[in-house]
Amino acid sequence: MKASNALWKEHLAGKTPEDLAREVDIFDAEVALRKQGKLDERLFAETRLRRGVYGQRYDNGQRHDGAKVQEMNYPSGTLTKGPSTMWDAPGMQRIKIPAGGLDAGQLETLAELAEEYSDGIAHVTTRQDFQLHYVHIEDTPTIMRRLAAAKITTREACGNSVRNVTACPYAGTCRDEVFDVTPYAKALSKFLMGHPDCQNFGRKFKPAFSGCAQHACGLTSLHDIGFLAVTRQENGVEKRGFQVYVGGGLGAVPYMAKLFDSFVPVEEILPLTQAVARVFARLGEKRNRSRARIKFLVQDLGIEKFKEVVREERQTLPADPRWTSFLKDAEEFAEVPLRPGDETSSSGGERFKRWLETNTRPQKQPGYVVVTVALPLGDITANQLRSLADIVRKFTMETVRTTVEQNFVIRWVSRRDLPEIYEALDAVGLADPGAGTIVDVVTCPGTDTCKLGISSSRGLAAELRKRLAERNFQSDEAVENLHIKISGCFNSCGQHHIADLGFYGVSRKVGGYAVPHFQVVLGGEWEHNAGSYGLPVAAIPSKNVPKVVTRLTGRYVEGRNPGESFKDFIKRIGKAELKSLLEDLARPPAGDRSYFSDWGDPREYSLEDMGTGECAGEIVSSVEFDLGAAEREVFEAQLAFENGQIEQAGKTAYRAMLHGAKALVKIVNPAISDDADQIVIQFRKDYFDTQKFWDPFAGGKFAHYLFDAHQKAGTPHTSDSSRYLIDEAQLFIDAAHSCYNKLGSSVAV
Questions:
Q1: Are 408 and 425 in contact (CB under 8 A)?
Q2: Span between the terminal Cα atoms of the chain, in Å
Q3: Range(s) for CATH 3.30.413.10 in the chain?
Q4: Which pLDDT does position 79 carry in this prediction?
Q5: Which H/E stretch holds residue 237?
Q6: Which positions ≥6 away from 141 have C-beta within 8 Å?
Q7: Side-chain half-sphere of 717: how many Cα atoms within 13 Å?
Q8: pLDDT at position 407, please?
Q9: What backbone phi and psi angles, to 5 degrees, belong to 476?
């Protein structure tokens, strides 16, 4: 039986840092006030989000594999129709882990909380955080107290705030790094957490650190602010600093970060970030959430003007001793091993050899390796967390970190200990080989628990992982090292834009019924800190996605040039051939009802009863024809962009949105003209103002893509603006499909 919040508060008194204890006391009071109806829900929503407490989706109380979550957390039947408020059923607690660093005691605390308050599983995210699902909101203050006692916080894990500061998990051990970025990442996290200049953002703000330019471990190119380690000589002395990038981000429309400064001395990174935060808080969008990230501010101002404004802001900042005190011992920071290093090679069975190939990485320190613990779908059980704590105590100085690929790395493992640590991990189911390979699929929670989920990303990831594990890629390193990333919706929490093979969830109508689909995104680059973003190629029924993976990897093996990367291969063969290659997979086979359910979910995807009438073909509405034509125009825009026809690409993408809007408008007004102004006015009246086109959580974001494009229709396109417009057009068409699906079968054909 769980102890009460009051008992835990008494038990942990004096064991918790004073600032964290006070923070939890405040939230505890807010929970009580909200439950009594004395705190406005809108205000409470932001305050709980800033402490990592999310509402959660409930369909049938089952995980992707069909297993029921623990009954102890909610009564039977609670989830059958979906709770009306977050008080009726559990939600999700996100836990912030700066730079992914943990010790054994913290692993054990997480294990206890997962077991006592969740479904016995902790989930590692693509931002090195942890998430506990099926958590009751009344339990969150106790969870926060117990985390705080272990020196862990949930503060600003969500909400319009500075999110977790991520960093390369190999920092300090990587042979290619310039220097160890760990102390700088932790200093920035400590400095910004709760900082008064970071409390008035329109949206979230994500920082990241990387020790080198060539690998993907820090992903600085896709962050609001990214720090890439560099050095230079000053008066014969090597000086540490960072290349600083701003305005990156994935989300619905990905933006590549812009170089702000090629060298910022380490003592300037805290005040510079503070200045950036102040500019973002002052000038960033507040009302239109779809344009409230800093990437839009950088785009609107231009990087040169943004630099000017930030540098002016920096000059006005009052001196803060923390700028240097937090970094006082950074250059002396170093982890140490528990056991002596050894270059002895290890021997063992085939599975052990395979694990050595994929799950170990030599450190720059002779005799030591980093061991990767691969977590299928990012999940680890409470008992596995306890076992991992025992293992890192035995073999290291508790040097373990989470990764952006949803795994753990154990650092400073002596080579001589590899057989023994493998056996220890294998005994608790943590020795799966294939870390960082095509089998190691990254995924967001999707429809399992996320309210934004459209298609089952975890279900698909589990199926792909199973099928790929059955195939032998060891003879072809180029295929084996491909990355697959899946998001349940357009928001890219699974980072599909930077995968070799990326997928995000959408829905389409087939024969008048909704069918789960995934957009196939190709051309992304994981290496070079997320060096390039992919573009959508085709929407494929969820059940056909494994065939897409097989077909694309097979085509790559058959047609690549010597040494050609998958990204370069995709660029060379072009979107037209890719579209043709996948065309027959874009429609489910006639009469196969399995396509109307998603992976890991036996229920039919549509909420409407399926018809079983006999017919020679499907009845396709004029709306579907028109949306299909609009989708074709998006593809034509992609081809134009690929061929360097930037202006044509932008104009075609805008025209696609306009035609998608007209497809919906015609339902209400069949006689609508082709005049762009009239289409946009009517669309705003019939779909935006009525909120029929609104996503429950994204609001009118996609409609604003049309409105903004229409307003700028006469403005010449740049490569960036054309690229963004293509992404926005695809998302607008996806949203138009979803809107049409929601209108139901009453729409005339």
A1: no
A2: 58
A3: 173-332, 437-613
A4: 36
A5: strand 237-246
A6: 5, 24, 27, 28, 31
A7: 24
A8: 97
A9: -130, 90
**Mean pLDDT computed over every residue of the chain:** 87
Element (H, E) at 449: none
Q: From CA 128, how far away is CA 402, in angstroms rounded? A: 5
Residue 195 CB contacts under 8 Å (≥ 6 apart), including other chains: 162, 274, 277
Residue 510 CA to residue 593 CA, distance in Å, equals 11
Please give the class, per CATH, of domain 173-332: alpha beta
Q: How many other CB atoms are found less than 10 A from the CB of residue 361?
A: 17
Cα-based distances in Å from 123 to 95, 137, 143, 166: 10, 18, 16, 16
CB of 249 closer than 8 Å to CB of 232: no
Provide the residue count of the chain: 749
Nearest to 219 by CA among 251, 228, 125: 228
CA–CA separation, 175 and 66 (whole Å): 43
d(CA 660, CA 678): 14
Residue owning tokens 């990038």: 245
- Burial of 675 (C-beta count, 10 Å sphere; 0-12/13-18/19+): exposed
Q: What are phi and psi of 55, to 5 degrees?
A: -75, 165
- Count CA atoms within 13 Å of residue 114 on its CB side: 24
Domain 350-427 falls in which CATH fold?
A: Alpha-Beta Plaits (3.30.70)
Edge-to-edge strands, sheet with 400-402: 101-102, 400-402, 408-414, 368-373, 360-362
Residue 223 has pLDDT above 90, yes or no: yes
Farthest-apart Cα atoms in the chain, separation:
84
Single pTM value for the model: 0.85
**CA 484 to CA 550: how far, in whole Å?**
12
Lowest mean pLDDT among 83-92, 224-233, 406-415: 83-92
Please give the pLDDT value at position 749: 37
Specify the domain boundaries for CATH 3.30.70.3340 within the chain. Answer: 350-427
Q: For residue 416, give the nearest of 363, 368, 362, 357 by alpha carbon.
A: 368
The region of weakest confidence among 8-22, 333-347, 522-536 is 8-22
Which helix (H) or strand (E) segment holds residue 244: the answer is strand 237-246
**Which position has the token pair 């030591």?**
368
* Nearest 10 degrees: Cα torsion 538, 540, 545, 548: -40
CA–CA gap between residue 218 and residue 198 (Å, rounded) = 22
Query: Which has more confidence, 185 or 668?
Result: 185
**Sign of the C-alpha dihedral computed for residues 543, 545, 550 and 552 taken in this order:** positive
Structure tokens at 565: 């990367």
- CATH code for the structural domain at 437-613: 3.30.413.10
Picking from 186, 383, 165, 366, the residue whose alpha carbon sits closest to that of residue 277 is 165
Q: Which two tokens stand for residue 7?
A: 């008992």
Yes or no: domain 620-749 corresponds to CATH 1.20.120.330: yes
pLDDT at 452: 78
Among 577, 555, 576, CA closest to 566: 555
Query: Rounded distance, CA 120 to CA 212, Å?
Result: 37
pLDDT per position as a tens digit, 50-109: 899 988 765 433 333 434 433 333 333 333 334 445 555 678 999 999 999 999 999 999
* Distance, CA of 731 to CA of 506 (rounded, Å): 9
Sign of CA dihedral 196, 313, 249, 96: negative
Closest listed residue to residue 87, CA positions, set 42, 35, 134: 35
